[in-house]
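From the methods appendix. Each design record in this collection lists the tokenized structure first, followed by the designed amino acid sequence. Records were kept in a plain field format so they could be parsed without special tools. The example shown here is representative of the layout used throughout.

RECORD:
FOLD TOKENS (304 positions):
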């Protein structure tokens, strides 16, 4: 089968610069999620190898959270470049990325298990509509999952939260904010709670009540003072090169309420609450009242 060209063109996510006559420096552009462009990167490197380009410098400035697949790709490209007499080197590697490298093992990338495990996980990871329906997500009835506390679990978690938030008709903008908050909260557990140690787990509980959507992240790491973290000022932090606090800043500004309940025995619980703002129809945005709105005297999405 002929390989299809990826939807993102090379010039849209890569910056390239020649160093000398035989070394190509590569940098992912700002705003690109490196873990989402792995197929495109593989196609690019395949093309470079065919053009006898075998020496690379990869600027890792915009790659803070490489997942197992990204790290495996780097290993594969390094092996291929060296096989061809070249090399593949990294620079501007952040401390966070180094931690990801140091905790990477074949077990964090390879799927090892029994045949029935793969059949079950395939249905779980796909999050098909039938799977969401089988969860029986109803108002007042929480849904819980347990996942490995690894970076490559983040997409699984955020995908589930997103689909369930969409199911209760949450406004798309608010869904995106919630997704960011959940991502940051789980990343904090993985990085600062478990310090990327393999074998740890965390629980996710999702609950819909009339006009709120609640996501609870449960972990068994050392409790921390969530509300004792120094307030984060974006401008001052940039000028002073302040480290830390940005994750909690994002969480607080992405949800309507945050509660942290430390408990070494049953697990620490970080509870994120979003008020459900329903999707406003185009008619309402234009100021046209529906029959129901006229009867109730209230028009959602419009100010008096």
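DESIGN:
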């Amino acid at each position: 089968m002929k390989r299809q060209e990826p939807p993102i063109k090379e010039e849209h996510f890569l910056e390239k610069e020649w160093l000398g006559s035989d070394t190509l420096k590569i940098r992912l552009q700002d705003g690109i999620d490196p873990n989402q462009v792995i197929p495109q990167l593989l196609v690019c490197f395949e093309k470079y190898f065919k053009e006898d380009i075998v020496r690379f410098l990869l600027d890792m400035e915009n790659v803070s959270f490489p997942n197992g697949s990204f790290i495996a790709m780097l290993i594969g490209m390094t092996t291929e470049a060296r096989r061809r007499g070249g090399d593949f080197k990294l620079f501007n590697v952040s401390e966070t990325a180094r931690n990801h490298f140091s905790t990477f093992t074949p077990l964090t990338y390879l799927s090892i298990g029994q045949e029935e495990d793969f059949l079950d996980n395939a249905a779980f990871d796909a999050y098909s509509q039938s799977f969401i329906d089988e969860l029986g997500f109803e108002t007042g009835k929480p849904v819980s999952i347990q996942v490995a506390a690894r970076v490559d679990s983040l997409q699984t978690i955020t995908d589930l939260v997103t689909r369930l938030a969409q199911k209760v008709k949450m406004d798309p903008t608010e869904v995106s904010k919630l997704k960011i908050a959940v991502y940051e909260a789980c990343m904090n557990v993985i990085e600062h709670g478990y310090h990327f140690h393999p074998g740890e787990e965390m629980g996710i509980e999702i609950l819909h009540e009339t006009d709120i959507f609640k996501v609870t992240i449960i972990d068994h790491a050392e409790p921390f003072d969530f509300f004792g973290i120094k307030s984060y000022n974006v401008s001052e932090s940039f000028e002073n090169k302040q480290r830390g606090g940005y994750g909690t800043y994002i969480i607080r500004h992405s949800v309507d309420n945050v509660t942290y309940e430390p408990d070494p025995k049953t697990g620490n619980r970080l509870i994120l609450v979003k008020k459900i703002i329903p999707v406003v129809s185009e008619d309402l945005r234009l100021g046209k009242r529906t029959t129901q709105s006229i009867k109730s005297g209230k028009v959602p999405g419009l100010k008096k």
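APPENDIX NOTE: The chain has eleven helices and nine strands.
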